[in-house]
Automatic annotation (TrEMBL):
It is found in: Membrane. Keywords: Membrane, Transmembrane, Transmembrane helix, Transport. PANTHER family: ABC TRANSPORTER PERMEASE PROTEIN-RELATED, PROTEIN TRIGALACTOSYLDIACYLGLYCEROL 1, CHLOROPLASTIC. It comes from Desulfurobacterium thermolithotrophum (strain DSM 11699 / BSA). NCBIfam families: MlaE family lipid ABC transporter permease subunit (TIGR00056). It is a multi-pass membrane protein. It comes from the Bacteria. This is ABC transporter permease. The chain crosses the membrane at residues 12-31, 43-64, 147-177, 197-221, 233-258. Pfam families: MlaE (PF02405). One of its GO terms (cellular component) is ATP-binding cassette (ABC) transporter complex. One of its GO terms (molecular function) is phospholipid transporter activity. Belongs to the MlaE permease family.
């Protein structure tokens, strides 16, 4: 009984300690962006690294995801002679859910792991201590640019993911199944709304923030040399991915509850 209570207490303390540290670093990263000096080159470099580097992977994934949605839904719609409505299903699915979630998970695997590994390596090799010795705030220098550019990059890449995913669904529906393209596009316009896109972009911005702050947090508190860097990188990817899926549900619930 006492061991069970001890285990529950340890888990609770670790949980509160993690999210407390996350909150402190997140607030500092946001606030420090407005303090001089503002190094725009760092922001541009991170934006190119996160955004441009992830674009091919996200485009390929989204193209086939849109195609898979069309393939899976064709049989059901074909029974009711409503194949032309597949475009609306693809558009809404990509905009509201699959676009932001897939984009965030892919960026977590590619860029989130890189953030944790890079900052973790700087931590164990005492480069972060060297920054402090030179009167450079390590959070402002290392974390702030990654947070802001991750929010922008994930949001922009989600828009591209939505478009490419719809193209994938269009190719499968019109080219493979020979669905009337005029009806396909018309029913997409009738079923899908800009509100669907806005919901997805809200998710994308929050996901980008979570990826950067969680990955940088694990990197910033890395201990134990090269082994510690590997462990921090793994934890950053796992926790970021789980957080994305949990917050995906919470954001969807809030938007539905308030009918936004």
């Amino acid at each position: 009984m006492f061991k069970l209570l001890e285990a529950i207490g340890r888990v609770t303390i670790n949980f509160l300690e993690f999210w407390g540290s996350w909150l402190i670093i997140s607030v500092k990263a946001i606030v420090l962006a407005f303090r001089k000096p503002i190094r725009f080159k760092h922001y541009l470099y991170q934006l190119a690294s996160i955004g441009t580097g992830s674009l091919p992977v996200i485009a390929i994934t989204s193209l086939f995801t849109g195609g898979v949605i069309a393939l899976e839904t064709y049989e059901a719609f074909h029974r009711f002679n409503a194949e032309y409505m597949i475009g609306g299903v693809v558009a809404i699915s990509m905009a509201r859910e699959l676009g932001p979630v897939l984009t965030a998970l892919l960026i977590t695997a590619r860029s989130g792991s890189a953030m944790a590994a890079e900052i973790g390596t700087m931590k164990v090799t005492e480069q972060i201590d060297a920054l402090r010795m030179m009167a450079v705030n390590p959070i402002k220098y290392l974390i702030t640019p990654r947070v802001y550019t991750s929010v922008i990059a994930v949001t922009l890449l989600t828009i591209i993911s939505d478009i490419v995913g719809y193209i994938g669904g269009y190719i499968v529906s019109v080219v493979v199944f020979n669905i009337n393209k005029t009806l396909y596009i018309r029913y997409t316009q009738n079923l899908a709304e800009m509100n669907d896109v806005y919901h997805g972009l809200i998710k994308a911005a929050i996901f980008g923030f979570l990826i950067a702050t969680i990955s940088c947090l694990y990197g910033y508190f890395t201990k134990g040399g090269a082994k510690g860097v590997g462990e921090s990188t793994t934890k950053a990817v796992v926790v970021s991915s789980i957080s994305i899926l949990i917050f995906d549900y919470l954001i969807t619930f809030i938007l539905r509850f308030f009918d936004l």
